[in-house]
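Researcher: Next sequence.
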Amino acid sequence: MWRSVRNYWYLRLAGVTPTRWRPLLAVYYLTYACDFRCPYCADGANRPYYRLDSPTLDADGVVELLTTVRRYCDHLVLTGGEPLNHPQVDEILRALSPLGFRSVVLTTNGYDLAPRLAGVLEAVDHLVISLDTLDRAKADGWYGVGDGALDRILATALEAEARRSASSTEIIVSAVVTPHNIADLYEVYQFCQTNGLRFAASPQLEGVKVHPDLIDNGPYRTLFDFLLEEKKKGRAINGTPLYLQYMRDLKAFRCFPSATLAVSPVGEVFYPCLERGTKGGNLLQEPDLDRIRQQAIERFGPEPSCDNRCHSACALSFGLILGRPWSMAPEALIQLKSRWHR
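Model: Next structure:
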């Protein structure tokens, strides 16, 4: 806990380009590989992850890498691509607990989750399952792996929630809001509320910019107005009220790129951020993160001051937590109200 507190205040007080790396969250791309073909899933250059070259570390290499990451950061996200596509993911999951992260998040499309669900629930604190529509034809068409994919994912999500009483893992359904599924997301949200799942939503990005058809889009704004009202009632929705307002209005915010340590499948550290795609060094070759940062600043220059972009959950959350920490107060009150009425 002390590390997160220290890192928070360092980031708050360090100025525009901190000389040291004191991240609040590490995001490790276990693999870029994925069998799905979701139309919105791409990196900051708008390249689909499944098209990226995806060499991976073996389980021992991943553990070595994450041991170094743990020295700098308390919280870890394992993502992809589809992280469950890593050939040794089961060994990696078993190795997480001894590393001592205060929390671990696993993101997944849920398609291959069922056979390893017990191990996942034991290894992670937050399980994030992607779900963007309950329209079977639309979902199965987006996934690109054949009929029945949505039903398989829904069944696994419900099984995960049913097993949750035996673990402390929180199940979160994460939806990407696209121009083509806004109306569907009310049904996805209701599915979450009915089955005790937390709901999260963020806009589709094309590269680093919100999809142009979502800008000045009335139904998009109405969706987030609805989520704001539900949030005020204490419903399980990710993000503070101010966060949801920024997502609704697509307002510019100050980014704190060094709040997140983004690491490629083979240990490369992205500087200044994942979205730029430039890499400052490799933690397996140089385990001193501050040295990597200093060399990256010399090579690529200071952190940029960007225009209105990157309305992703991590970037906006840290932008508000660090830039407007008082915005957390309404969230605390909502949580207290929610617990009081249970």
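Model: The first helix runs from residue 2 to 13. The chain has a mean pLDDT of 93.
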